[in-house]
Amino acid sequence: MSDLISQNLNMIFKTPKGETVHALKDLNFTLKKGELLTVLGPSGCGKTTLLNITAGFIKPTSGNITLNNKEIDGPGVERGMVFQQGALFEWLTVAENVDFGLRMKKEDPIETQKKVDEWLDIVGLKGFGNTPTYQLSGGMQQRVALARCLINNPDLILMDEPLGALDALTREKMQSLVLKIWKETGKTIILITHSVEEALLLGERLYVMAPRPGRIHKEYNLPFASMGLKEDLREIKKNKEFSQKREEILEMIWNMEEEIMGKDN
Amino acid sequence: MLTQILTFLIFFAVIGCILYGRRLIRTEKVDAVFGNPERALGGTHWVIVGSSFLLLVWLYYSWDIAKGFYPKSANELCQVAKVNDSLLGLKYQFPIEEREFKSTSQIKKENKNLKIIKNEIQNSKELNGQQKTILISYIIKANQLIPLLTNENLIEDETKKKIDDITGKINLLTENFQKPDYPFETERELNERLKAVKEEGGWGITKVDAGSGSIENTLEVPLVPATYRGLKFHAAAQKLNLISDEFFKLRNHNPLFKSKIKELKEEIKSYRKDLSDNEEIASTYAKNIVKIARRIEFASIYPPNALDKMQAAIIKFDNAQKDAQGGLRFIDMFLFPAGTIVASGPSCSEQGSGRWLPKPSDTFNKFVLMSKPSVGYKDIPLLWIQMVDVSKMIGFILPDWIADILPGEYPVHTKDGIVKQNFKGGVLKIVTGDFNLFKVPVPYGHIWDSFLRVFLGLIFGILIGVPLGLFMGLNRFAKGFFDPLIELYRPVPPLAWAPLIISVLGIDNTGKVFLLFMVSLSIMIISARAGASGTQLSKIHAAHSLGASKRQILRHVIFPNSLPEILTGIRVAVGMCWGTLVAAEFLAGTTGIGFVENVAKKYFQYEVIWITIFIMGMLGLLFDITLRKIIDKTIPWRGKG
Fold first, then answer.
1. Banded model confidence at residue B583, pLDDT cuts 50, 70, 90
2. Alpha-carbon span A130 to A95, nearest angstrom
3. Which of A127, B34, B137, B343 is the most buried (most CB within 10 A)?
4. Could you tell me if B534 lies within 8 Å of chain A, comparing CB atoms?
């Protein structure tokens, strides 16, 4: 019932030069409640466009996309978003950032405060409530962004390369956090990434997208995310199947990139 | 006294700090490498040297050091200047400071003039042959007048006797002047002089007019000789004035010259009378020849050696007075840089940097005086507090038409001549502020007026400019609609609007506040627009997906995100408004710092001009520091997002 269903989704942009770019072509997919989908692909394959359409920031040229049988028409609270650079409001403290959505809905402040404490605890920022956000490190900022999104209790969480700007160590910790939150809340998550490893580790399902026109090139169903809930992530990376899949996908993406280069020249 | 102490302090501070700086350089290893930025760190001692140096230059070039150490020197130099002034006319007759005798140069000049006229007449096409012959004969006659004056044999005995007499007087003066007890002042004269000195006051004294309570122009240099040395020069100057008057009354006119010039004048007069109206050119030439003849008559032209003795006497006196100056000459030379005290007629004045660069001590005294609310400037204090009834403010805020729209009529007087108050009349009293409540202190004065104008102009600019700018940053219609309007008026220098605005809205606050509003409005619009359009899309997206409405996004995301730009805009606007205001107050008005400076300019009150400059600098700095503090407090995240 509460699935994300995309039917014949098409997105055509017109560049200022007058060229038409077919960003998405006939995209059909169904995401069931509680699934974690990672999307991978070379730049220009329409990953972000897909996310923006799902979030409701832009409207598709044709086709439709529905969440819980309701057509997506503009941004909404039921679809939370986490951006690459946090997009935190740096004039607010951590707590004020986290409760932003609740304050906008004018919810009971005492109730809100309780929820904020709860969520700060979950993302590991207990006691940082009054810290100005500009004093936080990149990883901590992403934790705030996660908490800010989750406190609204969305049905679907959209993550646009949320860990892209972090250093390797922080990234690993954050990956565990994403898995932990996915498991505890049971939310549907779409996560866009550039990193093949990350896509494999976190994705219950994985779409590899191809550019020009943007389309789903290959689809995988992966066991690593459920493994990651129990095991250490580093152990999984040593897994033979994991390395095999990684090489396969890397090869695929390399070929796509080369194809683009060829087209350009 | 203070100046002396200060001068010494500064002097030793400079020397001490320089020595300390030298030693520091020698002991510090960091300095070994040129280009190391650490070389520029620290250095408070150089700050002291720099500011002391500035102060020292000010003290020196404003002649405050001279005033501090030799308070009587200006008065003495004034007396010396009087002597020089009296001596000037006599000296110019001889090649003492000039290259040639006055007689020689005058003869040269008039010969040249006659030659020019002669050439003109000869080449003239309007004159006929007869006229030319007559006019040239006049020129020759005028030319022949000169030898009559320069011939030693023709000089009259009486004239010779008078020249000897004047020479004798100069020599006597020189002799007396060199006597130590000249000018033989009696006890009574001494007392009278000292009383006059006391009444006149010292060098650069500031007086408050007892009548109006405002500052009078300072007495630049006291005239009455205060010292014995000064008195000597004063007396000599008076004597010299008499002698030179006598000399310039003297005319070297012998009977032959007199008859010749009379003859020439009469001849030309009758010739001009006989000329008809259409012979105007000949008449003009004849008139010009008479003019030259008159100049020759009244010039002090003497035979070459007739005044030799007198010249020697003058040189002798000049040397004597220079000797008598003694140490004063060195004070003049070293402590009165870029100028000196000069006398012209009865008064003395500072001429040079001491005139327009006010002495620090004078400036400070005047500032203290002007700060007193009872003195102020033009009957208005610089900054003070007055008690204003609250009712006046209520009357100012409430519009008068509130009373007009009420039902009923205003009270009309009865046949007994009594006016009965009614409700409508009562309301009118309230809205016009015609009642008594309690009084509150309100600041007023020149500084407050200027401040208030900037403040109001700025506030209106912010209140209208920020919302409009944000709107323009977010909305295509608003940007397109208002952009041409703003871009048309913004590039015009604000002062170019001033005459128009002041003549439409008046010279009072309204016009100036509106002008400043115009200045701040464009700056605020541009900065708010830049802030709004510079908001990261991801932040707006985030707010959208967190469920914020359009209004909420504007209030909670776009506005705070634009705050750094808006506050920077305010800082720029304050600077611009401040500059524009002072210039606008120059143009017109009755209060404000710019007004004070403008009036001071008219009366050559250099101290006041410098005081206003100082006040403006300090207020500008105060605004900037306050704003910087506010910026640091309100937007600590700036540049860290």
1. confident
2. 6
3. B343
4. no
| Average pLDDT over all residues of chain A | 80
Q: Are residues B461 and B332 in the same domain?
A: no
B135 and B250 share a domain? yes
| Residues B359, B452 within the same domain | no
Q: List, in order of start, the domains of chain A with CATH numbers.
A: 4-78+156-264 (3.40.50.300), 86-153 (no CATH)
Q: What is the pLDDT, as a whole number, of residue B80? A: 93
**Structural contact between residues B354 and B204, judged by C-beta atoms closer than 8 angstroms:** no
Span B185-196, average pLDDT: 90
Among left, alpha and beta (phi > 0; psi -120 to 50; other), residue B639 is left
**What is the reported pTM?**
0.77
Would B83 be classed as within a structural domain?
Answer: yes
CA dist., res. B456 & res. B517, Å (int): 8
Q: State how far the Cα of A35 lies from the Cα of B468, in Å rounded to an integer.
A: 47
For residue range A181-213, list pLDDT tens digits in order.
888 888 888 888 888 878 887 878 888 887 777
In a domain, B430, yes or no: yes
The answer to whether B564 and B556 have CB atoms below 8 angstroms apart is no
Total residues found in chain A within this entry: 265
Expressed as residue numbers, the domain containing B46 is: 2-61
Q: How far is CA A184 from CA A122, A178, A179, B78, in A?
A: 10, 10, 9, 99
Cα torsion at A24, A26, A27, A29 (round to 10°)? 180
B187 in the same domain as B44: no
Residue segments in chain A with a per-residue pLDDT below the cut of 50: 1, 265
Residues B491 and B406 in one domain: no
Residues of A at the B interface, defined by Cβ within 8 angstroms: 55-57, 75-77, 79-81, 83-85, 87, 89-91, 100-101, 104-105, 132-134, 145, 148-149, 152, 158
State both tokens at A258.
């080369």
- 8 Å CB contact of B545 and A89: no
Instruction: Name the domain count of chain B.
Output: 4
Residue B444 Rama label (left phi>0; alpha psi -120 to 50; beta): beta
